[in-house]
Amino acid sequence: MARKRKATFVDLPSSDCFDGHDDDELSLPLDSSDPDENDDSNYDDLVDSDDSFSLGHQSFNEALYKEYMKECSRLKSLKKKLLISLSHNVKKKKSDGRPKVGFSRFSVTTFCNVINSLSEDYKDVIRKYGFGSLLLFDKCSMPRNFVHWVARLVNYNSGDIVVDGKAISLTKEVVHLVLDLPFGGSPFPADYTAGKLYLLSRFGKDNVPPISFFSKALVSMKEMSDDDMFVCFIIIAMSTFLCPNSSVVPCHKFFGIFEDLDKIRSYDLCGYILSWWLEYIKLFN
User: Fold this and answer.
1) Bigger pLDDT: 49 vs 199
2) pLDDT tens sequence across 77-95
3) Which one-letter DSSP state was computed for residue 243?
4) How much is the CA Rg of the chain, to the nearest whole Å?
5) Which end of the chain is more exposed for a tag (fewer CB within 10 A), N or C?
6) DSSP letters of 145-179?
7) Environment class of residue 24 by beta-carbon count within 10 Å: exposed (0-12), middle (13-18) or buried (19+)?
């Protein structure tokens, strides 16, 4: 009867891939009996030929150790990818809810700086076009949370602010009473192409410049014609106060009023402003 030889074990250093476990040591057989003398081990499944096995048991265990370290490295890489994936899922869930803040290019600071930089002659031009009430704008601050609270109370279908069953109607007449701007006239031109081309040609641009371009032109007190100055002023008033959005470039929708500046007082500006407010309150809610 064949005599079985006791296997000898050697300690291998621990690997980072077993983080969180108590397995500080891993024992593997360094020497064992021949395959045909050990009923518990089937080396024929691990060794392809007698030539490869003739390298000796120690060489075989070195190859196994390298394979073990390779697997540890692979597991470590998988663990890192899993943690990154979980982190991305958590961030995505946090961003799925209602945004805590709203963002727009509304800027009372920019608008006030422009008003304060205007000469009396330029202010007279603005009054001549019927927008002198905007020069009376007084800078003030209002808590963002209060603004959001009011916006969420607006029924944008009826145009009412509803509080405890009571309604405060938002109409273009109310806008006129607050801002003293033209109302009740013709709607803004639906096709703003001609007004946009007029704007580009007047300022020598291929594309509509950002809002900052028009504000800097006025704050720097650069000499310009009355019409150019008025166009810059209206773009700033609309983009930073009356009808702001989230873009750094003025919205093209109201450019149709620039096609003929002599007709600008004939447009229903208050109606346009109210429609803009209700549309963006709808998007916000």
Assistant:
1) 199
2) 888 888 888 887 766 555 5
3) S
4) 38
5) N
6) HHHHHHHHTEETTTTEEEETTEEEE--HHHHHHHH
7) exposed
